[in-house]
Amino acid sequence: MAKFEEIGTASIPGQGTQLRLLQRNDEFSIRIVGAPGDLMNTRLHGSEDALAELACERIADRPGARVLVGGLGMGFTLAAALAALGEDAVVVVAELVPGVVEWNRGPLGAAAGRPLDDPRTRVSLGDVGELLRAEPSGFDAIMLDVDNGPEGLTRRENDWLYSPRGLAAAQEALRPDGVLAVWSAGQDPAFTERLRRVGLLVEEVTVRAHRPGKGAKHRIWLAS
Is residue 134 predicted with pLDDT exceeding 60? Predict the structure, then answer.
């Protein structure tokens, strides 16, 4: 089997950490420099698809739906949101790392069907937390797939996003009857309780990293 070859690196703003983009035939991997294993892989995106599908099915019948995807990653959540929503929808994707956007505009983009080229897509470069604070009642759905979930790997600042203050900001950024969907690599009962404490009704769904029904078990919270 062919080996992965590095085709790009990208610095995470405000950190001494870098991401690596690797390719093996038509498979791509994003890894954190100095850390073992994949952060993301194009073979394993079932749970990223489910994040958007579960959230968007709740608001898909709303005319002019406006949704936020926190974390572009490999583009699969964005692509799934676009597939689930109407032609009059707007999907804002917030991505902290400019290099990740460039990868999705370049060699990585075809893996998810080049969702950045969809005219309904809007790219916001920067911290998704700042976008939440700036847009009260701005979104019908918010999907967060940032830094591996509540137990982050790359940025200490991401702890704020999953804190009571961050969750309250997300709640305020939702329109009436909106939905907040949060992806995580694993279970986190303390996070479930945090969601409830800010006044959200919570449903937890277990999904597989690879469809159908294969791969690691990931967790999605749906809060409204």
Answer: yes
